[in-house]
Amino acid sequence: MASRFYAYGFGDTQSNSFEVNNEGEVTIEADKAKYQPGETASLLLKTPFPGRVLVTVERDKVLNHFYVNTDQKSARVRIPITGGHVPNVYVTATAIRAITDNRLPLTVARGFVPLAVEKPGTKLSVAIKAPSKAVRKLSRPLR
To answer: What is the pLDDT of residues 100-121, one digit of tens each?
Structure first.
């Protein structure tokens, strides 16, 4: 039995200085690994298409949300870090593409990133003090 298969692909290309994910994922890059209350996190959102992005800051509930429009396929957002964000918060991004043509089948893309937040003076320092030699008496010899 013979069968025929035909596939056609068409890409949406625009000039960018970085690679974007075309699998429906928003890549979020933070400017630092850890933050302190009072600082501002600068995040780069890389989307597979230009459009509008819903950004949320969450813990056990949504603490803040706002919309930002992408410039081509990226947007930069700033998140003020507060004491209520200790020890961490999650930033999510949901990109929504306007349906003006059907060249790109994606209409929604999602991504998230955890942001670690440390408050100075609240971290316990842990140290293990042990003698350099430990002597142990055995009741019976080892085999």
So the answer is: 767 667 788 999 999 999 998 8
Instruction: Check: CB of residue 77 under 8 Å from CB of residue 31.
Output: no
Q: What are phi and psi of 85, to 5 degrees?
A: -90, -10
pTM for the model: 0.70
Contact status, residue 115 vs residue 90, Cβ threshold 8 Å = yes
Reported as a single tens digit per residue, the pLDDT across 14-23 is 445 555 555 6
Strand bridging mode 34-35 / 108-117? parallel
d(CA 41, CA 34): 9
Which of the residue ranges 3-7, 21-25, 26-30, 93-97 would you say has the lowest mean pLDDT?
Answer: 3-7
3-state secondary structure 83-114: HHHCCEEEEEEEEECCCCCCCCCCCEEEEEEE
Return the percent helix, strand and coil in the chain, to nearest 5.
0, 40, 60
